[in-house]
Design goal:
The protein is 77% helix and 0% strand. With 183 residues, the protein is mostly helical.
C-alpha cells in the first residue's frame, strides 16, 4: 500500500513540476540549457514508463546533480524549491540518504508558504519511512508536522503515518482487517 502511495506521489511530483528556468546570466544560461536537457531526458524517460529503479546509480547521480545545480542558478524561489524537492525525491528512490537530507534542507530553507513547507516535511518523512527505512528520522518529521503544522492537512496525514510507521504492508492490512472486523 505504501509503495503504491509513494509511486503515486512520485508520479504526481514528476508530472506536475514543469521544467522552467528563470532568467539567468548568459554564462549560466549555456550551462542551464545542458542541465535542462539532462532533466528533460530524465522526465521523458520516466513518463515513457522506464522506472527509476532500472536506471544506473551514475545516471541518477547526474540527474540529481543537474536538479541541484538548476536550483542554484535560477532566481525564482518557487522553482528552486521545486528543483530541490525533485532532487531529494529522486535521491530517495536511489537510496542516496545524505542527498535526500541536503536537498530537503535546502528546500525547507527556501520555502515561505507554511502549507507547502508542511508538504515538504511530509514528503521528506515519507521518503525516510517508506524508501530509506530511516524510521527515527521519519518519526521526528511526522511529529514536527503534528506539533508545528497542527492545522495542516499534512499533520493529519502524519498522524496516520505514525500509526503504521515501520510496519510491513501485511501488518498494516492485518491491523486494518482486525480493526474493521474483516476476515
Amino acid at each position: 500500500m505504501r509503495k503504491l502511495f509513494f509511486i503515486a506521489i512520485a508520479a504526481i511530483l514528476f508530472a506536475s513540476c514543469g521544467n522552467k528556468t528563470a532568467e539567468a546570466p548568459k554564462e549560466k544560461k549555456i550551462n542551464g540549457d545542458s542541465l535542462l536537457k539532462v532533466v528533460n531526458d530524465f522526465d521523458a524517460n520516466v513518463k515513457s514508463g522506464n522506472p527509476i529503479v532500472k536506471m544506473s546509480r551514475e545516471q541518477l547521480k547526474g540527474v540529481v546533480g543537474a536538479y541541484k545545480e538548476l536550483a542554484m542558478i535560477t532566481t525564482d524561489r518557487n522553482t528552486q524549491v521545486m528543483y530541490f524537492e525533485k532532487a531529494g525525491s529522486i535521491s530517495g528512490e536511489a537510496h542516496f540518504n545524505e542527498e535526500v537530507k541536503s536537498c530537503f534542507e535546502s528546500a525547507f530553507a527556501l520555502e515561505n508558504n507554511p502549507e507547502k513547507l508542511a508538504e515538504l516535511h511530509y514528503t521528506y518523512a515519507f521518503i525516510n519511512d517508506a524508501k530509506l527505512k530511516q524510521f527515527d528520522i521519519a518519526r521526528q518529521e511526522y511529529q514536527l508536522l503534528i506539533t508545528n503544522f497542527s492545522t495542516s492537512f499534512w499533520a493529519e496525514q502524519a498522524k496516520m503515518a505514525l500509526e503504521v510507521l515501520g510496519k510491513t504492508d501485511e501488518e498494516i492490512l492485518a491491523a486494518f482487517k482486525a480493526k474493521n472486523n474483516l476476515k
